[in-house]
């Protein structure tokens, strides 16, 4: 589609949607949201980009093939589940690493749950984009 | 301990990821796939030994105690299914080296194959109904991809039928899981065993039981829900058909066994009659359908359906001996069926076609392959002393014990008709001279290809022979399994006390 309105709007919208998807990803830790919905939102950004600027532009904007993105997402989610082995707990049990201060007193802690969510995010993004790109190429 | 139970699906998923990254290189991919299958086999052997010595083993994922978290559990039934699917996986991975062409490997055959194995193994170890649904989905998505990989026209035709009917089944399964959750407030299978007994709503429970029969019945291909199977199983490469034939429908049967021994144990009578009727009709229609076919793989596909009838029959009779018969039959059937499909692939490679009219002379050209076919086919038909004989004997004995003479008669007739189909293949493909005058011998293949094709076949044939000539320990194991299924106290304790990790 060669619409100058869509193309101009897309430049702003894509950035906004991507930031929003990261916000959704992080928000999902304690509130509604999470990796799955965030992945879908991010995929919609690239779908919009592909509609406005064409397939090749979207693919080069993504930089890596979407299939690889999905696979690395699954790998990241799997690895976050494996993390518990170093602490002697069961598979996929939650682990919190303290970065600064203590967890109880406003310290900054990071959990493997977050990595799992990022893995889901990448998987959904990669899988949906694989489908969209494949359908786009076929048509 | 809890890690051991997660390994049956962790290993194939890891293997799938590595195989995906290496998908451009055919040889490397095969090595990765076979290594993964071998590792899964070692793990499943460890699980079987642990379960035999220590009873059912449970693990709570993420340390969330049952019934709130997802429980993984291996009892005797799960353990033996894991073992047998690992063996099938390994054999098919070996066979796939020569059967799957470079294009399909590039498209990610090994990745999807391993995901399929992950879905199958996950279904066997999970103790949670919703998690079972998730593993079914993993398995289905992988099987969709495997079915149409390569994109030939006939593959898409079979694929669409397969997808459409399996989606209906998935939908039914999800609906019934939702209704069950509404009734009981839990989806942990052990907890359901307790909670459902307290629900005073026989109409809702009977309805649920029937929806579950429909949902899993489509997966298991029981009468009258089997139409997707003969419509789709002859379209993909034979290595794919072999793993489908060995494992997919059996996961449906496994789910039926779990549902109707653990979740609905008290709902006998009504559903039991439905299962019994479906089992008998499945046995007969499958074998009659096969009699009408003249294509190697279609005959075998219809026989899958007929054999599913036997598996369900044991569940419907619901006595310790009958359930033991089902378990033994399952082991025997997975091995024999996978082997027959692998042999049909090699037969096609040598004689040039799957159509029985167009091939022949295999006995003269390769006596070795014929011997393997003889072992697998006549075991399937229930010829003594091969493994199928003992499997059928257990079921027939169980039906006679319950004075269900009609059931016995149908089982015996089905056996005789199976023999007819197998002799038809034997006479047409192996004995009669090749219509075009020439059938390649095994020695015309390269040494490597001969090895890749015959090693898995001989491995499976030797398992059939071991099952046939030394059935004692296996029958004992099956009886132990039946005991566990009918009296799930150890299972409940392992899951709900959460003592392990």
UniProtKB/TrEMBL annotation, chain A:
It is a multi-pass membrane protein. Keywords: Cell membrane, Membrane, Transmembrane, Transmembrane helix. InterPro entries: CPA3_antiporter_subunitB, MnhB. Residues 5-130 form the Na+/H+ antiporter MnhB subunit-related protein domain. It is found in: Cell membrane. The chain crosses the membrane at residues 12-29, 35-55, 67-88, 108-135. The keyword Cell membrane applies. Its main location: membrane. The keyword Acyltransferase does not apply. One of its GO terms (cellular component) is plasma membrane. Belongs to the CPA3 antiporters (TC 2.A.63) subunit B family. This is Na+/H+ antiporter subunit B.
From TrEMBL, chain B:
It holds the Pfam family Proton_antipo_M. GO terms for molecular function: NADH dehydrogenase (ubiquinone) activity. The keyword ATP-binding does not apply. The chain crosses the membrane at residues 6-24, 31-53, 73-95, 107-126, 132-150, 162-183, 203-226, 238-257, 269-292, 304-331, 372-391, 403-422. The keyword Transcription regulation does not apply. GO terms for cellular component: plasma membrane. This is Na+/H+ antiporter subunit D.
